[in-house]
Every structure is written in structure tokens, then in C-alpha cells.
Design goal:
262 residues, alpha/beta, Cyclin A, domain 1, Collagenase (Catalytic Domain), 4-stranded mixed beta sheet, two-stranded antiparallel ribbon, 8 strands, binds zinc ion, aminopeptidase activity, MtfA_N, MtfA_fam
């Protein structure tokens, strides 16, 4: 009953918002990942994007004058990870804050040399526990399969992966598992992949992911999620087991299954 009422109210608000399918297509036209979503899946993504826009509030950081097209694009990128999970996975927070460029959080920051600075370095994005998602538009424009040191980059997917991770025991690299998944397997495979990456990094080998993934298990999951959606070929090739588990978690196959026996 509650869901029906919520849908009815949302449909009214979507109608009032007045976005068209053409506006949406134009806003996401330069994001290559969208080629993957066609037919009914594309329609579902557009519908979810409009629903995201009525459920969330977009706020300006430092007076940035963002446009409707920017909101449509951010909302679509945000919806891709939950397309087959459901928008309810984002129910515990409300606000997206959009800055024009990297933003500097107003809090103390300690560098590796142990020095405490009154403010930290510029950030491309941040996700607060039960708080807002903060994003830099400039960094969103640098999305792509090879845009961060030659590695996959999508700050929206990165921060939203943190939000999913936070749904169970805080951000620790282990989001809630579906009934058909085994938490032990997730732990073992992600730990082994992390150890391998750490080892490659120590031996100055080329890494399949941006080395920011080595910051913590939470960052590892977020960076893997970026690679899963932005550069799935590379991820399946370099980290097949992690790719398989992310397919299970996100309930999506970014790459068609290999056809054998033909
Ligand atoms: Zn992060």
C-alpha cells in the first residue's frame, strides 16, 4: 500500500518536473557506458533516473550554477549500479552536493609525514554515512575507462559504491550480500585480490586498478566498482573472480557471457 502511494506521488512529481526522454538522451549521450543499456533496460534506467531526481535534492557547493542536464547525467550514473537492485538501496540519504571543481573539506587533515593541516587537499568526491554525496563536476567530466592514470574512473559510481557498502557495518568493502551469495567467499576473494594488488604495487608492476584502491578495503571495493562498470573487459581479464562476485552483487553482466559449444 505504502509503495503504491509512494509511486503515485512520485509519478505526479515526475510529470510536474517535466523532463522528456529526449532531454535525458541528450544529457547522457557522451557517456559510453550507456551503449550497454538498450530497450527495456534503458527505459527502466530512465525511469529510475527521474525517480532519483524526485527523491533526492541537488544542492550547490560554493555557488556552482549547475544545469538540469548535469543533474540528469549525475542521476543516471548514480542509478546504473542499482538498476537491478532497486532505488530503495539509496533510501538512507537525501542530498547530492555538486561543486564545480575539486572541493576542500573544512576539517583537519594529517599527511603521511604526520603533519596535521587545518584543511585537507582538494577532493573529487565524498560520501558521508547517512549524509550527503558530494561531487566535483569537473571530475565527473573526466569519467572514462582510462582517464585516471590510465585506469577506469567514475567518481559518481565510486561514491555511490561507498553508500552501498555503508549499508552493512559501515564502509568496510563488504556491502550487504544477497541470499544466494556467501559472505565468506566475498571476504576470501576480495582479500586475495587485495593481497595480489599490494604485492604488484610493492614490486612496481603495472596494476589493473588505480593504486588508490590500496588505501583501505572500502576504497578497494569502490575502485573495483568503477572498473566493473567503466572497464569491464579489463576487470574480467585481470581480476576474473572479483568480476564474477561484482556481477552477483550488482546483478548485472556488463559483458555478454561467453558462448561456448557452438
Ligand atoms: Zn572513496
Amino acid at each position: 500500500m505504502f509503495n503504491r502511494l509512494r509511486n503515485w506521488l512520485e509519478n505526479r512529481r515526475i510529470k510536474k518536473m517535466g523532463f522528456t526522454a529526449e532531454q535525458w538522451e541528450s544529457a547522457i549521450a557522451d557517456w559510453p557506458v550507456m551503449h550497454r543499456y538498450q530497450g527495456a533496460e534503458r527505459d527502466a534506467l530512465r525511469n529510475m533516473c527521474f525517480r532519483f531526481l524526485v527523491r533526492k535534492t541537488f544542492a550547490s557547493g560554493s555557488g556552482f550554477q549547475f544545469t538540469d542536464a548535469m543533474c540528469l547525467k549525475v542521476a543516471t550514473m548514480a542509478c546504473v549500479p542499482v538498476l537491478h537492485l532497486g532505488l530503495d538501496w539509496y533510501d538512507r540519504w537525501k542530498t547530492v552536493i555538486l561543486y564545480e571543481d575539486a572541493f576542500v573539506p573544512n576539517r583537519p587533515y594529517r599527511t603521511e609525514d604526520g603533519v596535521e593541516h587545518s584543511r585537507g587537499p582538494g577532493l573529487s568526491g565524498e560520501a558521508w554515512y547517512r549524509g550527503p554525496v558530494i561531487l566535483s563536476w569537473q571530475d565527473i567530466c573526466e569519467t572514462g575507462a582510462h582517464t585516471r592514470h590510465g585506469k577506469a574512473n567514475n567518481v559518481v559510481i565510486h561514491e555511490l559504491a561507498h553508500k552501498l557498502d555503508m549499508l552493512r557495518d559501515g564502509a568496510n568493502g563488504a556491502p550487504p550480500m544477497h541470499p544466494d551469495m556467501r559472505p565468506g567467499e566475498w571476504h576470501d576473494i576480495f582479500t586475495a585480490a587485495w593481497d595480489r594488488l599490494q604485492n604488484d604495487w610493492r614490486h612496481h608492476r603495472t596494476l589493473p586498478l588505480d593504486d588508490y584502491a590500496l588505501t583501505s578495503p572500502a576504497e578497494f571495493f569502490a575502485v573495483c566498482s568503477e572498473a566493473f562498470f567503466e572497464a569491464p573487459e579489463n576487470m574480467r581479464e585481470e581480476m576474473p573472480e572479483v568480476y564474477r562476485l561484482l556481477c552477483q552483487f550488482y546483478r548485472q553482466q556488463p559483458l555478454p557471457l561467453a558462448i561456448s559449444g557452438l
